[in-house]
Design a protein that fits this description.
This protein is an all-alpha fold. Helix content is 71%, strand content 0%. It is built from eight helices and no strands. Helix 2 packs antiparallel against helix 3, helix 2 crosses helix 7 and helix 7 packs across helix 8 (214-233). Mean pLDDT is 94; it is low at 254-262.
Length: 262
């Protein structure tokens, strides 16, 4: 029987599939770290108080990238190039979600609307990240190899999600509510398409590495399409709702550093 636990265990047990998984994850986290660092440097003067939180967000993403690379190193493996079709962060940017890298490479200050776009993009993608880590934490929190990293990353992703709720609610109270809701909806609908496409691509690569039979690959693809159909119909709405988080000022403390895995 196919399950999330058995599927990930199979990927974890094979060196090549584990190497691809960690390489994809490390690349995406490192890219997120760079994006947040640039946004923190470019926030408008009126929002300079937000810069330390954005910096913390980026530091966490960098830390996650180092964690995945440390897991590879501990197993005696090296990262592999990330296939274009599995690059979730790059594909989101290509579809116009979030702030364009061209804008982030410039030295011009961002606008308040730019900051809202960044937060909306983060609110949607951190929902996905938080849910994925909850699943991994459920099955692998006590795993001797990846358990510590899973627990740490899951905690951070929950903090990031709480932070985006809190900041977007602040902007909504300041009169930006309609723009926020429109931006959140656009981000959510684009994200679920990209997530479907990336999931199909990752499973295709894993299937070839692990030698899955066609029936298994077809069943997994059907499941991914089924998730997309549900998200396209109604599931996307969970990504656009805003509520006061239980964790207040979740990114107000100093950024933590990655533990040693070597």
């Amino acid at each position: 029987m196919l399950s999330a636990k058995s599927l990930f265990q199979e990927i974890l047990d094979d060196d090549e599939s584990f190497r691809l998984f960690c390489s994809i994850a490390a690349s995406g986290e490192s890219q997120g770290g760079w994006e947040n660092a640039r946004i923190a440097a470019l926030v408008p003067e009126s929002e300079r108080a937000l810069a330390p939180k954005i910096t913390r967000h980026g530091a966490d993403e960098d830390k996650h990238g180092r964690l995945f690379n440390a897991l590879l190193k501990k197993r005696g493996l090296h990262p592999v190039p990330v296939p274009h079709e599995t690059d979730y962060t790059m594909l989101l940017e290509k579809h116009g979600i979030g702030l364009a890298h061209e804008k982030l490479r410039a030295d011009r200050p961002l606008t308040v609307q730019d900051v809202i776009i960044y937060l909306s993009h983060s609110r949607v993608t951190e929902q996905r990240a938080s849910e994925q880590m909850v699943m991994l934490r459920k099955h692998f929190a006590d795993h001797p190899v990846i358990g510590k990293a899973v627990r740490m990353i899951s905690h951070d992703e929950d903090n990031h999600l709480a932070y985006t709720h809190e900041e977007l609610l602040r902007f909504a109270a300041a009169g930006h509510g309609r723009f926020i809701q429109r931006t959140l909806r656009e981000c959510a609908l684009a994200e679920i398409r990209v997530y479907r496409d990336v999931s199909l691509a990752v499973m295709d690569h894993m299937g070839r590495i692990l030698g899955w039979p066609k029936a298994k690959s077809a069943a997994l693809a059907a499941g991914i399409h089924g998730v997309y159909a549900w998200e396209r119909f109604a599931g996307w709405r969970r990504m656009v709702m805003l509520k006061a988080p239980e964790r207040r000022d979740a990114l107000g403390a100093s950024a933590t550093t990655a533990p040693e895995f070597a």
